[in-house]
Amino acid sequence: MVQKAKILLVDDRPENLLALEAILSALDQTLVRASSGEEALKALLTDDFAVILLDVQMPGMDGFETAAHIKRRERTRDIPIIFLTAINHGPHHTFRGYAAGAVDYISKPFDPWVLRAKVSVFVELYMKNCQLREQAALLRLQLEGGGHQGVDEKEPAGLLAELSARLAAVEEQAEALSKQLDDESADAAAVATAAHLERKLTGLRRALDALEPGTGGSASALPTQG
Questions:
Q1: Lowest mean pLDDT among 7-11, 28-32, 85-89, 90-94
Q2: Residue 70: exposure state from Cβ atoms within 10 A (0-12, 13-18, ≥19)
Q3: Nearest Cα to 53, choosing from 123, 3, 124, 2?
Q4: pLDDT, tens only, 53-91
Q5: Residue ranges of the Response regulatory domain (predicted)?
Q6: What CA–CA distance (Å, rounded) separates 40 from 67?
Q7: What is the DSSP code (8-state) at residue 33?
Q8: Residue 29 forms beta bridges with which residues?
Q9: Exposure letters 198-219 (e unless 16+ CB within 10 A, then b)
Q10: Cα–Cα distance for residue pair 128/174, rounded to 1 Å
């Protein structure tokens, strides 16, 4: 069973949160509400999110300040942030949003289809990264002796073949996603994130190849996550 991704919706107006939920419900992911920057930061302490939709104009801690806190934290700095704003003060205002760490900046009223499409790209990238981490963790566990704990012990060659097949499935999905981004002329940030995912997949594939019999590879060949 594939675990759903979490999407954080941050807006001080309940009607705006309801509208976002209505637009994004078709993605069938877990939508988490926050009515202030402080509430958003509290949610980010315990949960992992695929993407954050962050209103710029909020009383107290506004969207820019909230984003700055998110980007300063090691745990949350890589979560994509899409700024939503009902006002437009020109290029300087937009530049401030990108400088604060946003991957996109959308003015209200926005096209529901466009917003849903943008969010879905980051959800897919998040899911692929989760799959990659799981495959790397499984490989490490098996190579470091986890298999002796009892369940389905296999010969090294059979284990490597199974892990290679699982990795191939993730590689195929990542390739399809990259082609989709190219076809849709997606945001540069989404393309860069997809490229980063492909680089990590390539590193894991090389590590697996190095562990083939006769190559002299070891668990130390595994790439670190980051």
A1: 90-94
A2: buried
A3: 123
A4: 999 889 989 998 999 999 999 889 889 999 988 766 555
A5: 6-123
A6: 10
A7: E
A8: none
A9: bebbebbbebbeebeeeeebee
A10: 7
Q: Measuring CA to CA, which residue among 118, 101, 112, 135 is closest to residue 185?
A: 118
Beta bridge partners of 7: 31, 51
Q: Beta-carbon neighbour count of residue 52 at 10 Å?
A: 28
DSSP 75: T
Between CA 117 and CA 69 the distance in angstroms is 27
Q: How far is CA 41 from CA 8, 77, 183, in A?
A: 10, 12, 35
Residue that is written with structure tokens 């009892």 in the block:
150
Residue with tokens 């389905």: 152
Measured distance CA(99)–CA(32) in Å, rounded: 25
Long-range CB contacts (< 8 A, 24+ apart) of 185-190? 186/121, 187/103, 187/104, 187/118, 187/121, 189/80, 189/103, 189/104, 190/103, 190/118, 190/121, 190/122, 190/125
- CA 225 to each of CA 51, 60, 70, 78, 136: distance values in angstroms, whole numbers, following the listed order: 19, 36, 20, 13, 9
